[in-house]
Amino acid sequence: MKKTIAMACLCLMMAGPAFAGSSRADLQARIDSAKIVLDQIMAAGDKSIPMNILQQATCVGVVPGMLKGAFVFGGQYGQGVVTCRTGHGWSAPVFIRMAGGSFGFQIGGQATDLVLVAVNDRGFQDLLKNKFKIGGDASAAAGPVGRSTQAATDWKMNAELLSYSRNKGVFAGVSLDGTSVSQNYDDTTHYYGASHSFEAVLKGSVDVPAGAVPFVRAVAHYFVEAKNRK
Hints:
- By secondary structure, this protein is α+β, with helices and mostly antiparallel strands.
- It has one domain.
- It has helices at 2-19, 24-42, 51-56, 121-127, 154-158, 185-192, 198-202, 213-228; strands at 59-86, 89-90, 94-118, 131-133, 140-142, 161-167, 170-173, 180-183.
- The longest helix is centred in the first third of the chain and has 19 residues, at 24-42.
- The termini are far apart.
């Protein structure tokens, strides 16, 4: 019973941001932070995302400062943005939530930046779902690192999504099995000032807002650069 109550308390604590309305400034700051994270990761040279993955990516998600906490058991919660490749470039971004928990005798907490890369059309379709669980509804793998080296090829056969984390400057693949990813429809609607489906936005039917142009251009720069190096 005590464990159940404790779990409920942590879930409410970590879900709090989902119920508290985000201001337009909060949403813009989230997009700006996503660009900064991506720029810093890609500046790591041979310790960043491999070129052959950049070349095949269909969507990119960045969750700046995902929170992790643990007291007897662990939990995590974060909010981020996703853009997808279209026939004429990269789409305007949508907002997502990520949440999950795992039991373990640990006390502590940390914040880490997360990057999700969809590497085929199945990964793209996952992001059009209202909610899915990594490792359950969607196959995922810890992404290989090594920009200038040949990355492992197992992910080509088995993964729809590749996941990465960055904490204290260290960038590496990470397993996110059990973590749920859900569409943040309220934040997306608030940012655009109108209701748009995730499918419409991610397929390029909605113009990129001025505030999101730097983030989308950064994604386009890194992934077009990778295509040109084939």
